[in-house]
Structure prediction request, 834 residues.
Amino acid sequence: MSSTDPRAETRRVLAICNACGYCNGFCDVFESARLRPALTDTDLEHLAHLCHHCRNCLYACQYAPPHPFAVNVPRALTALRHHAYVRHAWPRPLARLLVHAPASALLVALATIVLVLGAVLTLVPHAVLFAAHQGPGAFYAVIPWGWMSLLAALPLGWSLLAVAVSLRRVWREGASAGEPPPGWRDWRGALADLVTLRNLRGGGPGCNDLDDRPSHWRRRLHHTLLLGLLGCLAATTIATVYHHLLGLQAPYPWWSLPVVLGTLGGLAMTVATLGLAWLTLRADPTPSTSASRGADAALLALLAAVALSGLALLGWRATAAMGVLLALHLATVIAFFLLIPYSKLVHGGYRALALLREAAARRRRIRRAAGDA
Amino acid sequence: MTPDPTPDVLVAGGGTAALCAAISARRAGARVTLLEQAPRARRGGNTRHARNFRYAHDTANALSSGPYPAATFLADLQGVTEGGADPQLARRLVERSADLPAWLGGCGVALQPRAGGVLPPSRKTAFLLGGGTAMINALYAEAERLGVTIHYQYALEDPGLDGERVGRVGVRDPHGATLHLAPGALILCSGGPHANRDWLARHWGARAAGILNRGTPYSEGRALLRLLEQGAEPIGDPGRAHLVAIDGRSPVDDGGIVTRVRCMPAGIVVDSACRRFLDEGGDTASTRYARWGQRLIDCPDQVAYLVLDTPAWQSAPPSLYPPITAPTPEALAVRLGLDPAALVATLAAYNAAVRPGETPEDGHTEGLEPPKSGHARVLDTPPFAAYPMRPGITFGYQGLAVAPDTRVRLTRGGVATNLFAAGVAMQPNLIPRGYVSGLALAIGMVFGRIAGEEAANHVLN
Prediction:
């Protein structure tokens, strides 16, 4: 793809798909494209976000390179997705972080580590920092609870705002005239599609994760990662409840809910990031772009850093290394929070919106068909 | 790695029939070598462009919307070929088609259930999930898993039929050098000669230059033609082929399904002298593609133009290339390289003869020759649009005559002992004329399996 705007190429290949239709059993993209024959810019963006990048339609394609039609739908949609992430990033100047995702992840992570570690080394007396703390409130002896909460909450709050602004803009831009707001059935349908990753099943047999053979590994690893992340989130939430409502102070014993959830979550994230990184490195590069592979790798590295620093903190929390490990873990979490709107992580929100829009459109079609009959 | 000089079973070809034959022979215990003429990225023959296959089934099921009893399948086959299908082979095809979905499933081939709601309605066929190329990938993976040795860019040149046996077989390697193998049995599954330009020119004369090939350029039929020289018995008429009306701008080879022009009933079709020559509204079923293809071959330069006005063009299904458009019929004629006055006159005569009916389908012409008997409406809303059309060849109607066990018949009588054929190479035994959807794949699957079993049986017993 020579140009920086991938819409022309996406339009070209999807027009061929609309005349063919063989792939319509793999996922929702092809039926949705058939029903949007004009393939406007917003149509294309909807289809790009709807695509879960299972890659099956490349290996099944009778027109894939070296055929002169050179149809490579997953690559075209991947390029368009990345283009859309950049275009909708808010505020505009920070979109550059998405353009150079690996460098951004590295720089932001290094910056937060230097700042947090630097602050701790400067502000916390070394006798406290390098002491082995035990018992309730041990973490807060190094970094006071208020500071820890503030340092995490500010970037998270900012990022959630930025994501919300982008999602709202995309939803409005993609709305067609007279389109009713989605009903609860549509939300339920979209949620079911997200939970089952229905569009990442390749119509049943699985995805072409590495090459032309089907596999379910990407789908399983994706949700292992997501569940791990949710486990860690739940651990933090429960710990907050313990702290404020029950007056229990961390560190908690190994059998407590926050520690069990956090440990399992961290292990799941570690396994999943390693597995997905292996897939990213080993997979045939034909159906993706170097920009998307870079963004994938950057996010995986960031998540692995969060998980591994958390597990290290758990493992050595009773030793003199705790203070530094705590600072490191806090720094990676802050970096992760900061990069939510400016990394591959944004795919989740856009995908959810595309699935919601698709669920609503599908229900309207079924209702119309029933009305016609 | 050079090919095994003495495989039990040598399979020539790399499409459906070849893979079904190789898998069956290997499962029966034979050492199997498969030679695919194409490079790996273009493997699979015309199956790359296929989507569904016809099979007998007694009830509606997850794959097909209604029953298709064996007797109906047999009657359809004889009907479409005007009774030309070999009765024994036809019976074997129908009987053995019934377990194809299960057999394919056992090879890792995924079929597309109707439940998704996105398939065209079909009672008689089952659809491959992702189409023929996806099936080809699964069959190659299964063949490799079973231990079939696969060589890409190796072509069977000389089948070496000597009397009633295949002995020394000549094979061209990727560098163009010839090597010789001595297989226990040879199964020819390398298709017909319809992509072979010399062969087309021999049988179609100057008209051959106007024919586009819808499928793989590797279907050159060299081994098949050598076999006919070496005493194999031909069947079918080499001067006839299954031709389909496709966009004249399509590539010379491999255009596949998307090149079809579909909306003749919406407009009028004129040749390069701007004359109409066939009732555009007479046939709106899928049989129209082949009906138009057959007529295009006899048009001057094998070209005709489907002319539409804006409502007709906008109601057309999605096409590979956008139509050529112009604000007036005169300007359209200029863009197409036609005589503007002639196109205007033809269009005016047509428009004057249109008699609208109660429904759009009932619109017809009066006093026009040839008539347009349905879907006729006045074509007068600019801009005007045109699709240039040419005949696209799908397969020819000449092949190798075979016995019911797929052994190749000999002109001197009897059959070859260790030479088998499956797929398009022997398809004219079943389809010497006509066609209905999903037949070619079913023939490739059923007779590929039979040939693999018989060849293994011959070698091992």
